[in-house]
Amino acid sequence: MALTLMVSSSSDIAVGLAGTAGASALALLDPELASRAQFGWTISVHILFAALSIGLAPFIIYFTWRSVRTGSEAYERLQSFWLKVFAVGFVMGTVTGIPMSFQFGTNFPRFSEVAGELIGGPLAFEAKMAFFLEAVFLGVLLFGRERVTDRKYILSSVLVGVGAWLSGFWILVVNAWMQTPRGYEMVTKNGMAVAKLTDPIAAFFNPRMGWMYVHMINAAVISVALFVGGVAAYIVWRRRESTAWRTALRLAVMLLLITAPLQAVHGDAYARHVEDTQPQKFAAMEGHYETGQADLHLIAVPKEPEALTDPRAENLYTVSVPGVASFLASGGDFDAEVTGLNAYEENPPVALVFWSFRLMVGLGFLFIGLALWGGRLVYKGRVAESDRFLKSMMVSTPLGFAALLTGWYVTEIGRQPWVIQDVLKTSDAVSSMLSSVEATATLVAFVVIYLGLVSASLYVLKWLIEDELQHIPAREAPGGTERGSIPGVADDD
Amino acid sequence: MTEPVSLSLSTGPLLLPTEAYLVPSLPVIWFGVVMFALTMYVALDGFDFGIGMLYATCSNEHDRETLLSAFGPVWDANEVWLVAFGTMLLAAFPRVYSKLLSEHYLIVMGFVLALLFRGVGPELREQQEGERWQRACELSFVAGSALAPFLFGALAAGWLFAAPLVSLPAVLTGVGVVALSMVTGSAFLAAKTDPGLAASVARYGQAATVVYLGGVLVLLAIVVIRNAGGAADTILSLPVLAVVGASAIAGVLGVAFASQGRYRAWLIAAFSLPILLGALVAVVLYPVIYPATGLTVEAAIVSPLALNLTTVLGLPVLVVVLWYFKFLYGVFGGPIAADGYGH
After folding, report:
1. Which domain holds residue B73?
2. Among the residues of B162-262, which ranges form H helices?
3. Global pTM?
């Protein structure tokens, strides 16, 4: 799915590609399109593992601390299970992250050269301050239980978590700068116009940075809360008496109860900030074409199939609040003019941005509902008893990651045609050295290999869950609580 | 530090000079820092590659588990030196980063994919008992461990000699890095395992030392004979000859230590080889940093403010990173237990 999305992000070729998928499957892609598809696909897979590290870190720290300090077997089981998941996720994150750090050079060398002074520092800080910290202390956490003191062991888990969150910080400094570039001036160097750093504080703490960091970290925590909650719900559903997994389920629900509403409140303010700083992206998110008063579409349903590829007011059934988009964007004026997409020469693929945004927001509200429901059950002490809730949690296991991806598509596809907003177009950033054959070959390789990685990771998760179930003794009482496995339930996350 | 007049108000609390480098030689220092990260990568991930290749020679489960136990806790941290090298190259010399990677597209892509297979193999192997699954994971580990240093060497040849992938210098450099990885990998294992396994890996390490030294000499001879852009003068200069001589001595001493079973001494001799190689690369390159276009360190370096900032924020952290590694190798110091990759 991610591939289709990113391929289509080059709107001119997308239609032909989608229409003749079978016939042109063997055809070579234009290097620019292939590079964009490759970057989009590789980041889509990488971001899942990166978010897993960020979101799982608080769980790992908590489980490690509790298991070391209390010696409780329940926490030991949870620590050991989730640390294995973390380890697999971290390895996948590393091996998929290294290609990311090179693709700026291999596929988008002009981007690297133009923005090198601004992005190089933060990326190097990420490696030095965060990635090393995480990798070194994860080695201790995974292999060193018998070799270090309890204190150092707990400290290692904290440092792994700090590494994961710092890593996200420096990467988002780079991405936020690409959305709202500040603190630079364009100069000519070696015969090329490049950005020269003039004010590091303005550049690093650019207007987008704070918004993006809070939203992304919280999204990662929500995704993992749903993931942990879904796995816990499945195990509880199979082995009702497992105290360890009931604890994990309660923890996930409580975390969701804090983070899901926060995301909605924060996201609302974030959207207004996007309108201020990237009006074109905001217009794409709302499908707003004509400059003038803008309505807020709370709900949009396609009236005809074309609305899926070309959403605009005419072909949608919408529940809209007239003028509210104007009101929000202007900070109080219902008639304020919001610049429409028609005012721009070149636009991002509106349909992808519009529908990704709606999917993300819709999922966000679903998570709030789930959190409130679960919170009520926890309060009444019945969270493990409601089959309907357990099954809803199981189904929702991958949905946090889905929302995170669609949010990322809004951010990245919505910025097109720019790679650095109003500074450098993506089409001007691509390598001129790259041939269609090379670009297509590596794209195909990445698609095949990364699908293999994702499948392998899901299999590992399935094996870990099966193994865990075998370690929880089924109660032998007649009509005991063990249930048969439902095929596909464990696999769909 | 110099030229206080150039302090820009806009830099605020950082108080960094915007128009002058903190010290005039800062660009050269950063050339050194980038070369240092490259050397750390070749030395540390190199021995991981060596372990991966030696894994293919293991005849029993005990040996395999021992190798995985040696590899498990450290490889990921070692691999981060590659990211440190790449990102510091981008931060200090963006043009070199762009050219090096975009002009060697397929080699770089092949290299990162080889790293991928090397990394996931051991992690996935421990997750399932099945024979076929484990063999597939082992193949991924061994093939990735052999291919990655070869392609990294080929990339280095493209950088240093502007050599295409299918050329004698590229193949020789690739083989040289593979052999060097084998040397450090076997020395690392020999110093940390039981005498039986140590003696068996030592034989591979000794052979690899010969291949490595031979490869370096043939490669330098080719460069001298081709003499492209006056390269012969560079190679036949005193610093280069001194580094090559020191490598030869370290290699010969290493082989001798290995045959005497003095594995701690061999470890030192073996790891001095990648350090000398890093020095060799730096001496051969400087003052140029990208020979294909004759780009110099002075021309490729970023502007003063960016470099000053990277220096003030980044270099102290690099010292802390070295301390992490001291801690990590301290925790996992001493003999390796054959408890596999399991955690």
Report:
1. 18-331
2. 168-192, 195-226, 231-235, 238-260
3. 0.90
